[in-house]
Amino acid sequence: MESGSSISDSIDKLDYTSDSGSDYEATMIAKKRRKQTVPVAQPPKRPRHNAALRGMSSLSNSPIPTTPDPSLQQQQQQSSQGTFRQVSPRPVNAGIQGISAKDIYDAVFSGKSAMVTVVDEWLCSYKQGREAGLLVLINFIVQSCGCKGVVSREMFDSMHNADIISTLTKEFNEDSVNYPLSTPGPQLKRVKAGLCEFARVLVRSCRNSFIYDEYLFPTLLALLTGLSDSQVRAFRHTSTLFALKLLTGLVEVGVIVYVQLQTTQRQCDMEKSKREHDRASDRLEELQATISELRENREELSSLMNSTFRGVFVHRYRDRLPEIRAVCIEELGIWMKSDPEGFLNDGCLKYIGWTLHDKQSPVRLQCVRALQGLYQEKEFIGRLELFTNRFKKRILSMVLDKDPDVAVEVVNLLLLLQQTEEGLQEEECSHIYPLVYAEHRGLASAAGTFLYNKLKSVIATAKKETDKSDNAAFLKILISFYIQSEFHEHAAYLVDSLWGAAGSELRDWETMTGFLLQEAGGLVYEEEGALIDLMMCAMRQAAQTTPPHGRTQGKKMLSVKDKNIQKQDKRLITTHFIPLLPLLLAKYSADAEKVCLLLKAPMYFELEMYSNAQWLEKHLDLLLSQVCGIVEKHTEVTVLEACALLVGSVCSDRYTFSSRARLAVSQLLDSLAEYFSTYQSDLLQGTADDDDDSYSAISALKRIAVLSSAMDPTGWKLFNSCLEMLKSKINSGLLDKELMVPALKCAAFHLMWAKVNATNSKPAEAELIRLKKDVRSFCRISQTCLSLDQAEIRDQAFEMLCDLLLLYSVNSVRSEPALQTLVHLPSDSLRSEMAAFLLDYIFSDTEEAEEDEEEGKITLLQKKRNQLAGYCKLVIYGVIDLTAATDVFKHYDKCFKDFGDIIKETVSKTKLINPILSAKTICLSLQQLYSEMLTEDRSKRNLTEIRDLAKRLAMSFGVDLHRARKPVVALHMDGIRFAFRDVQDGEEPYPNIPFLQVLSEFSFKLLPKDRAQLAELLKSECPSAALSWPAVRMYQRSLETRSTAKSREQEERDDTVSLQATPVAKRRRTTAKGSVLSSVKGLELESSSLHSLHTPVLTSTVQKQPDKAPGKSTTTESDIGSGITELGSEDEFSSGLQMRKVKATKRRQVLPTTEQQDLTSHLSLLSLIEDVSEREEPHIEDYESDSSYSLPSTRHTSLSIMDELFD
């Protein structure tokens, strides 16, 4: 396109003159912009000719002047020396009745007026007097910058742009640095949209008239160019946005003029091609005149665009403010797409290539979006070939961008690249495939779309060789990808990523089951397992419409349409799988892994459909028969738990077929109980004749124990047998975890179901007494198990104790007075044993060191978290004293990574129960840690760990100081008394005074009047000789003023007692005699505060099986790109990608000497003007960037663990 030739040439010319070296060679050298000064006569007021504008565009490193006369440069030099002329402002519309600047401002930024009407009113004013009309428009721009100053008519007539800008800078409101385009919240979007719309409508309304009057747009753009070079951010930001939007409008007009010129030229050529006697001379002259006029218009537009591009864009695309850089790149993308002949060349593409390395993600985001608009047009691909080869490596690396939004758009861009003729190599695609397992759902979905299109292209290529349907071929290749990706446990994330693009293929249940039931020529063993995994995940996705763990994005309500789709999918799943599920279970009943997955299928059914027709009940019988057969075949806990979960669902009272299901399961339990009872005596005495019989009896007990979580086992009366077996094994010392673990489970479930039955049936008092006796007996046995050497037995006993103590607590029978007899409180010895278990096996790393595999460590950590949550529930629901939480609080900082969310929730809930007692407990936990430290050698003492814990616990009191007032004061009072307690025999004088350093970490939570009272208490408690001790003075200063973190650290360096760090010694097991619970019995929970607590979820009976999440990525996250770079010319596009870093070079700021005091009185340089050094053209240094994407966490999120464990 010829319309862009002058722009392209100007850009190329600019590149060779403004950059030393080639275009992509990064040799930007910091230097001051010099104004060329030529002493000549007084210049004219305003430009009037095209030559003026063309001469104005020749200065690329200074604001565009308003006249070609060199005398303008003399006046600019004079203004830089401070020769400002003060002119009193006067009304903008003097002498002309029309729209005012304030009217335009209110209409534009309120969004309530039609923009065309506003522009038309201003054009009427401009037609009456163009100087006055332009003055109104200029004052509107000044007001849009947030400036309170006004450009008067005298200033406009007698001053140049640099002088006007300097005057406005002095009159800028120094009270605030805010301006309209910095407005926070949703108002910013409306303000920016209004300003951009005004610029667009202004150019459109003037495209056939005032654009070519050689006054309005040259003058306006000259002023905007000057403002865009201002040190005041508001001027620079607003003027840059407005100027670039005007340039966008001019580009659109230029394209229209080019089309008109081409059309007219063709008509003229056709007229000339006619024979001489057939030509219409008048018509030919008219066409030639039109061509001449259009060419002049193109030259005028090209001059305007050149000057604006070089005066605004070239300098502002690397502005210090990321919002300005983002606007520049966004508009450049529009220009390239609208006028490819003028802008879609290497000279402009290099700016996008350089800013792909920008430190700020919004700028990188605009770069990628601009490229998306270009790669969407197939006719642009050839022009982009050099750019693609040069920057493809950089684009591929950006899929790991720290900002997920940028990474999402990059993946979408690469999808467009993949669809071109050259496409992406398989090695390049491998950068994107792992992102389907990413934590961010938007990024994973984008990667899923890319994978789907890639797989479809492979299928289309191989379709000629196979006769399979598209869905069958897709499933085959997806299974192959899933197996080769080596993320075998994360099918849920793969399905969730593909759900938006491949939803129809993943809902093809008929094809999937056809593959699985095919006898010959079907899938191999590994492929069958992968397909079952994918199918179950697809069923869950269709039935629940929720992402897997780790990808939850807030609470998103389903629309009515989505709910209808969900119901339809669930109905289709049910009707398809009801007759086929028994067949699938029969085929894979011997394979534990596959059958575990298939047993989840009924969880996604509409189970009510089993009772809709008699022929469906037949399938229910077949299903139950297969489940019972699987229970008899397997002893793996995972398989039995899956069967128990299914049994619990179909035996629910809400279904009419539940009695039929209970009958089938009861028959199974009858046979298992009978078999166990047959060999019970032999197991007790250890006289079993055959090891096979003993193994079968133990296996039967395992099955009964697991099924007891779903069915009431009290009818088989196995409690006494299990208890006797546990006593026998403990007394003999022959510990058998295969027997004792299911025995503990079976006995505990018996007591739990007995409590449920007692609540429903109201038994006699004698029955309740007998049940309580059984509970007491079980607790004694379990307490003994806590100290055994078998980890599985210890863990099972601890979990069952947590649940039973909760179920038989005071709060559990508060609404049932008749069941008060069942209340069982743990003894002091049991509390001590449980506290010792907490310290020795949950907060200890001994077992963790034994696990070598990552999966084993994750399983062990999950087990510990479950046990800690069970203990914390006992504290929260008042089963054990709140002071027992000290053993938990002491590890808040040390174990924050693994247990921080659980401990934080416990601290929060204890504050709701009894705020003051909770604060005292926090203080007590710190006192205990301090006392333990004193038992160590003096050279190894260190308060750092205790103070870090105090800092973290102090944050739990929240930001409302009035609400936390009493608890915080109580904590300080306890701490002061502890610091100055009476000296015991044989102790050094006042050993606890350094504890005041720990207490000072809570001082910032005190109100001023409480500080004074505590200061008086300190003086009364502290001996006069100790007032000068460093710890006392430090605590006194913390009470005097609210110290910042920085000042407190300085105090630590000045006043901290010299204590050397040492690893914390291993915790000693506590006993009933020395336990915290027995020594602080005066602190009791208020029972009335527990009424509002809901019934807790039991630790050991939770049957929910969360999906395993992929492991976390260990790569360090950082912003991709840490600077803007110029890397070479378009001739060097094919060279290697160099990442570079911008470092600003400082220069001295020069202020006008004669006006320095006046400027200081009107303007706050710290609030309005940015440091000149921050805007300098930067030096560039090599750097390396590092980024990563995140896989979903392997643990529960804080929300899910709290919902599941604390209810």
TrEMBL record:
<keyword id="KW-0539">Nucleus</keyword>
<dbReference type="Pfam" id="PF21581">
    <property type="entry name" value="SCD"/>
</dbReference>
<dbReference type="GO" id="GO:0051301">
    <property type="term" value="P:cell division"/>
</dbReference>
<dbReference type="Pfam" id="PF24571">
    <property type="entry name" value="HEAT_SCC3-SA"/>
</dbReference>
<feature type="region of interest" description="Disordered">
    <location>
        <begin position="1094"/>
        <end position="1157"/>
    </location>
</feature>
<feature type="region of interest" description="Disordered">
    <location>
        <begin position="1"/>
        <end position="91"/>
    </location>
</feature>
<feature type="coiled-coil region">
    <location>
        <begin position="270"/>
        <end position="304"/>
    </location>
</feature>
<dbReference type="GO" id="GO:0007062">
    <property type="term" value="P:sister chromatid cohesion"/>
</dbReference>
<feature type="region of interest" description="Disordered">
    <location>
        <begin position="1176"/>
        <end position="1195"/>
    </location>
</feature>
<comment type="similarity">
    <text>Belongs to the SCC3 family.</text>
</comment>
<comment type="function">
    <text>Component of cohesin complex, a complex required for the cohesion of sister chromatids after DNA replication. The cohesin complex apparently forms a large proteinaceous ring within which sister chromatids can be trapped. At anaphase, the complex is cleaved and dissociates from chromatin, allowing sister chromatids to segregate.</text>
</comment>
<dbReference type="InterPro" id="IPR016024">
    <property type="entry name" value="ARM-type_fold"/>
</dbReference>
<dbReference type="GO" id="GO:0003682">
    <property type="term" value="F:chromatin binding"/>
</dbReference>
<dbReference type="InterPro" id="IPR013721">
    <property type="entry name" value="STAG"/>
</dbReference>
<dbReference type="GO" id="GO:0005634">
    <property type="term" value="C:nucleus"/>
</dbReference>
<dbReference type="GO" id="GO:0000785">
    <property type="term" value="C:chromatin"/>
</dbReference>
<feature type="compositionally biased region" description="Basic residues">
    <location>
        <begin position="1140"/>
        <end position="1149"/>
    </location>
</feature>
<feature type="region of interest" description="Disordered">
    <location>
        <begin position="1040"/>
        <end position="1076"/>
    </location>
</feature>
<dbReference type="GO" id="GO:0007059">
    <property type="term" value="P:chromosome segregation"/>
</dbReference>
<dbReference type="GO" id="GO:0000775">
    <property type="term" value="C:chromosome, centromeric region"/>
</dbReference>
<keyword id="KW-0158">Chromosome</keyword>
<dbReference type="InterPro" id="IPR056396">
    <property type="entry name" value="HEAT_SCC3-SA"/>
</dbReference>
<comment type="subunit">
    <text>Part of the cohesin complex which is composed of a heterodimer between a SMC1 protein (SMC1A or SMC1B) and SMC3, which are attached via their hinge domain, and RAD21 which link them at their heads, and one STAG protein.</text>
</comment>
<feature type="compositionally biased region" description="Polar residues">
    <location>
        <begin position="1186"/>
        <end position="1195"/>
    </location>
</feature>
<dbReference type="InterPro" id="IPR020839">
    <property type="entry name" value="SCD"/>
</dbReference>
<dbReference type="Pfam" id="PF08514">
    <property type="entry name" value="STAG"/>
</dbReference>
<keyword id="KW-0131">Cell cycle</keyword>
<keyword id="KW-0159">Chromosome partition</keyword>
<feature type="domain" description="SCD">
    <location>
        <begin position="313"/>
        <end position="398"/>
    </location>
</feature>
<dbReference type="GO" id="GO:0008278">
    <property type="term" value="C:cohesin complex"/>
</dbReference>
<keyword id="KW-0175">Coiled coil</keyword>
<feature type="compositionally biased region" description="Polar residues">
    <location>
        <begin position="57"/>
        <end position="72"/>
    </location>
</feature>
<keyword id="KW-0132">Cell division</keyword>
<dbReference type="InterPro" id="IPR039662">
    <property type="entry name" value="Cohesin_Scc3/SA"/>
</dbReference>
<protein>
    <recommendedName>
        <fullName>Cohesin subunit SA</fullName>
    </recommendedName>
</protein>
